[in-house]
Amino acid sequence: MSSAKNININLKIWRQKNAKAKGSMETYKLDNVSTASSFLEMLDQLNEQLINDKKEPVAFDHDCREGICGMCSLYINGRAHGPDTGTTTCQLHMRKFNDGDTIFIEPWRSKAFPVVKDLVVDRSAFDRIQQAGGFVSVNTSGNTIDANATPIPKQDADKAFEAAACIGCGACVATCKNGSAMLFVGAKVSQYALLPQGKVEASQRVLNMVRQMDEEGFGNCTNTGACEVECPKGISLENIARMNREFLKASIK
Amino acid sequence: MAKSALLKSSIAKKYWMALTGLFLCLFLAGHLAGNLQLIFSDALHFNQYALFMTSNPAVKLLSYLTYISILFHAVDGFLLTYQNIKARPIGYAKNNPSKNSSISSRNMAVLGTLILVFIVTHMVNFWAKMHFDENMPLQTITVEAMGQKQELYLTTNEGYMPVAQVAKSYEDATKTGAQSYIANRTEFYNTQAKVKIGEGYKDLHKITVAFFKDAKFGLIATILYVIAMAVLAFHLLHGFSSAFQSLGLNNPNWTPKIKFFGAAFAIIVPILFAIIPVYIHFFLK
Lengths: 253, 285
Ligand code: SF4
Ligand code: FES
Hints:
- The complex is a heterodimer of chains A (253) and B (285).
- Helices cover 35% and strands 14% of the residues of chain A.
- Chain A has helices at residues 39-52, 124-133, 154-164, 171-175, 182-193, 196-199, 202-215, 226-230, 238-251; strands spanning 6-15, 24-34, 75-76, 79-80, 102-106, 115-117, 120-121.
- With 285 residues, chain B is an alpha+beta fold.
- In chain B, the strands form two sheets. Chain B has a four-stranded mixed β-sheet. A three-stranded antiparallel β-sheet of chain B has the order 1-2-3, with no helix packed on it.
- In chain B, helix 5 runs antiparallel to helix 7.
- Iron/sulfur cluster is lined by residues 166-172, 183-184, 187, 231-233, 235 of chain A.
C-alpha cells in the first residue's frame, strides 16, 4: 500500500550558535523528501545535505524516536509537535505535508527553557520541579512491601496511570500563551496524590513542586486549555484542577 | 510557608481571580435586575430602588466588597499578564493558537482592560453623579388642577412639596421668602423653624434617560454601551467556567453543566444589559 512519493519543501529553521548568541530564522530548500519518512528523518536528510555542503548541521533533540522519552521538542508551523494531535514530533510523518510547503521549525519558547543551540532547549527546570517533590519516600532496607499488597480502587489507579503517562516533553509550556507548566506539574502531583503511597507526603509535595515551578520562571495558567489539546499524551486539565485542590488543602493546613 | 503561598504563588493568584470574578458575576446579576426596572417599572420605583441601594447598610457592605473585588481582579490580572509576558521573552515566528484555544481565553487581559475603562466611565456618568453631584435633580411630577400646571417634588414619605415654594438653599429662602428650602442635597427644611420636613428622591431615572436620549451624544453613548456589553460577553464566555477550573472543580459530571450555564450567563446577561439603553434611546417616549 505504498503511496509514498517524494516532495520538495522549504524550511524556515531557528539557528542559534549557542545559548548566548542572538539567533535568527534561516531558510533551506530540501528536495526529494519521501512522504514515508518521519519528520526527524527529514531533518536528518537536511543535515546530511548541510554536512555535504560543509555547513553546520541543525541541532535538535531526540532519543527514542517512538514517542516515549519526551526528548523531541519542535514547534512546527506554529504548533507544538506539529499539526497532529496526540503525537510527539518523532511520530509525525512527512505525509502530513505537501509538495512546495514552507515549514517553520522553532524551539520551545519559554524563559524557563533557554535555548542551548538551534532547536535544542534546556528542560532541566522540569527535573528540578520533579526533584522538589515528585517522588515517594520509602524505606528500601530489605523490608519493602509488594506494591500490589496495597489495595487501590481501580478508578484511582486508572487516573494515576493516565497522569503518569506524561513524558515531560514540555509541549504544554511551549504551546501555552503564558508559558505555564501547570499541566506537567498537575500531572506529576496527581499521579502521586491519587495513590495511597503518595498521600503520605501529599501536602509538602504540592507546595514544594508549585514553589519550584514558580521559581523557575514559568508563567501563570489562565485556563486557555491549549496544553490539553497539544499534549502528545492527552493529559487532561482535570489534573490541573486536582493540583489546585491539593494546593488549597495543603495551604490551609 | 503555607501562608505566603496563599498570597504569592501562581495558584493562589488563580483562586483570587476566580473568587473575585465569581463574586462580580453575582454583582452583575443583581445590577441587571435593578437596571431592568428602567424598562419594566416607573420612575418612582426606580428612584426608590436607587435610594435603597445607596443607603441600606447591608447593600453598602456589598458595594464595598464589589469595589474591592474589581480593584483586586484588575490588579491581579495586570500582575498575571505582566509575569506571563515575561515568561516568554522571545515569541514564535509562526504561531497557530486558534487550533488549540478560544479567542476569548487568549485575550482576557485586553477584554478585561476594556471593561475596566467602561466601568470607570460608567461610574463617572452615573455613580459619581448619584453620590457626589451637587446638581443632581430631585424627582418631580407635574399635576394639572383647574387648568393650572403645578410641579411637585415627591417625598420619601409619599408626600408632595410644590417646587415653587422650595428654595435651593437657606440663603435663597431668606431672600425670596420661600417656605422651605433644600439642604444636604435631598432634604427639605422649613425656613422658619429650620426643621427637616421631608426628603426627596434623587432622580437617577431622569439622568439616565437624558443621558441616552441626549440629542448629541445619546446615540454614540448607546452604541458604546452595546459594544462594552459585547466585550463583557466575551470576557465571561471564558471567565465563568474558567473560575471553576481554577477553584479545582473539574469532573465529567459537573464540568459540562458549568460550561453550559457559563455560556448562557455570558450571552444572556450582557444582552439584557444592552437592551436597556437601546430601548431608552429608540423607544422610550
Ligand atoms: S503534560 Fe503532556 S505536554 Fe506537558 S510535559 Fe507532560 S506529556 Fe508533555
Ligand atoms: S524522541 Fe522520544 S518522544 Fe520523540
